[in-house]
C-alpha cells in the first residue's frame, strides 16, 4: 500500500527533475540567440557556458526567452499569417487560437457528456485542440495532423474506406422489400438542391462571396451524411472542409432534437397512427444482387458517383455473400473505426482561426440547418403526397428517415410513431427510406462533382 508521505515525496522529486530539464532545454537555443544578437559567430557562442563567461546572456534575457516559448505568451502576443476561405491573406492572433482550443473542448463536451456522435466528435475535438497549440507544429510540413490530412482526407481515401464499412453494416432488406420507399429517400434530397439557391441568396449580402462549388459543398449537409460531405467538400471547396464537416456531423448528432418538431408540424395525429403492413421476406439472392445492380446503374448513368456507390456496394456485397466473414467483420469494425479516427482527426486539423472564425462560417452553419430541415420536410411531404395515390398508405413519419443518418433517423421516426401509438413499430419500415437516403446523397454528390468539378 502506497503511503501518502511516500507519494508526496515522489511527486516533489518528479516536479523538481521536470523543472530542471525544462530550464536546461532552453539554454542552447538562448545562448545561440544571444550570440546572434551580439554579432558573435554562432560557432563561437553556441556553447551556453561560454555565453555565460562572456556575459552576453543575462538572467532577464534568459527568463524572457523562456516566457516567449510558453503558450501564455503566444496567446497574448502571437500574430501569424493565414489564408481565409476566400483565399485572402489574413492574420491569426494568439487569442483566436486560444478560442479555437476552447471550441475543441466544447466539441469534446458534446461528444462525451451529451453523447452527440462521440465516435466522430471526440477525435475532431482533439484534432482542433492539437492543431491550435502554439509552437507544437502539429500541422507543420512534417506534422502529425498534416500527414493524416494529406494521406487520407485531401485525396478522399478515408471517406471511401468509411463507405466500405457502412456498406458492411447496412441492411438493404427493408428497401428491397418495399422499393417505393426509395422515392422518399430521393425526396429528402430536396433539401440539398433548394439550399443551393439559399447559398446564392447569401451572395446578395455584402461580404459574402460563395461560388457554385461552395454552394454544392454547403448544400450537401442536408443529406446528413458526414463522409459524403467531406468527400464533396474536398473535391469542390477544400477551404470549407472544416466548417461543413463539423456542421454535418453536428446535425447528424442532433437528429433527435431537430426532426421531431418538423415531423409533428407537417402531420396530423391520425397520420402518425397509420399502421403499415409487415414487410415481405427478402431472399438471399435479392440481397446479393442488389449492390451489384446499384453499382451497375451508377456506372451506366452517374459514373462520378461510382467511387462512393462502389465502395458502399463492395462492403454490402461482402456482407451478403457470407463466404468472407473475416473481411466483413474487419470492414464493419476495425477498418471502419480506424478510418473514422483518422478522418475525424484530419477534419479537426482544419479547425484553425483563419478558416473557422469567419462570418461565412456562421452562415454555413445556418444554411446547413436549413438544408437539413428542408430535407426532413421533403421526405414527410413526399409520403403524404404518395398516400393520395396508394391503397396501402405510408405512415408519413418514415419520410423523415430519407436523410442519410443511418440508423438514427429511422429510430427517430419509430420513436415519434410510438408516441402517437405505443404499439405501432415503424423502425423496419423507416429503414427503407433511410438506406435509400445514403444512396440518394451519394448520387446527388456524384451529379455535383460531374457538373462542377474541374
- The percent range for strand residues is under 5%
Strand line-up across the major sheet? 1-2
H/E topology pattern: HHHHHEEHHHHHHHHHHHHHHHHHHH
- Mean model confidence by pLDDT: 83
Number of helices in the DSSP assignment: 24
Q: Which structural class best describes the helix and strand composition?
A: mainly alpha
Give the end-to-end Cα distance, rounded to a whole number of Å: 67 Å
How much is the radius of gyration in Å?
27 Å
Low-confidence regions: 24-35, 37-52
> How many beta strands in the DSSP annotation?
2
Approximate helicity band? over 70%
Shape: elongated
Largest sheet: 2 strands, antiparallel
Report on the architecture of this protein.
The chain is mostly helical and 454 residues long. Helix content is 71%, strand content 2%. A two-stranded antiparallel sheet has the order 1-2. Strand 1 (79-83) and strand 2 form a beta hairpin. Helix 6 (94-112) packs antiparallel against helix 7 (118-131), helix 8 crosses helix 20 (325-348) and helix 19 runs antiparallel to helix 20 (325-348). The longest helix has 35 residues, at 4-38. It is elongated, with a radius of gyration of 27 Å. The protein starts with a helix and ends with a helix.
Short note summarizing the structure:
The protein is about 70% helix and about 0% strand.
What is the topological layout?
Layout: H1 4-38, H2 42-45, H3 48-54, H4 59-68, H5 71-77, E1 79-83, E2 89-93, H6 94-112, H7 118-131, H8 144-153, H9 157-169, H10 173-177, H11 181-187, H12 190-202, H13 212-219, H14 226-236, H15 241-253, H16 255-265, H17 269-272, H18 284-301, H19 306-321, H20 325-348, H21 353-356, H22 359-387, H23 408-420, H24 427-452
Antiparallel strand pairs: 1-2
